[in-house]
Amino acid sequence: MKNSKRIIDYIPQREPMVMVSELISVSDQKAISQFSFTNNNIFCDEGYLQEPGIIENIAQTAAAMTGYNAKKNNEEVKRGFIGSVNKLQIFNLPKSGIVLETEVSIVNQVMNVHIIKGVVRQNKVVMAECEMKIFLEE
Fold first, then answer.
1. Cα–Cα distance between 44 and 107 in angstroms, integer?
2. What residues have CB less than 8 Å from 27, skipping those under 6 apart?
3. From CA 86, how far away is CA 75, in angstroms rounded?
4. Based on C-alpha coordinates, what's the Rg of the chain?
5. Are the C-beta atoms of 127 and 120 separated by less than 8 Å?
6. Angle CA(101)–CA(113)–CA(7) in degrees, nearest 5?
7. How is the beta sheet containing 125-136 ordered, strand by strand?
8. What is the distance between the alpha carbons of residues 1 and 134, in angstroms, rounded to a whole number?
9. 3-state SS class at 6
């Protein structure tokens, strides 16, 4: 499903804030993305992606999932807003030049609020994980 040229069709962000390169797989409840970044990334410091970039990567993977599913169902892509970040654990900062793989899954959904779990891996090693509450526009 590699679709890097169209990722911006599924998320509201634009360069230099795009933190997802490709949507690898997607279903109604789960998505996996990849993200390649360099030292020039706005969230990169001394060769490592910093915490705000990791959080944004997880949120944009969730946005890509909902955006992709909306387009698949001929619906409008809605913007989402992070309501909270919970249980954030950052085990290591990802190194630039190595592809990140981010998996998000919907844990719960009530009306326009999604609670998602996100896990970021680099070379199959878990770098970070968290839960997010994301509010979708009506």
1. 29
2. none
3. 30
4. 14
5. yes
6. 35
7. 22-26, 30-35, 100-110, 113-122, 125-136, 80-90
8. 25
9. helix
Q: What are phi and psi of 34, to 5 degrees?
A: -125, 150
Condensed to tens digits (0 to 9), the pLDDT of residues 36-47 reads: 999 999 999 999
Decide: residue 5, CB within 10 A, 0-12 exposed, 13-18 middle, 19+ buried. exposed
Cβ neighbours of residue 51 closer than 8 Å, sequence gap 6 or more: 90, 93
Tokens of 129: 């994980």
State if pTM tops 0.90. Answer: yes
Tokens, residue 30: 């789960």
Q: Kindly state the tokens that stand for 79.
A: 């913007």
- Tens-place pLDDT, residues 59-89: 999 999 999 999 999 999 999 999 999 999 9
Q: Which two tokens stand for residue 69?
A: 């599913």
3-state secondary structure at position 52 = helix
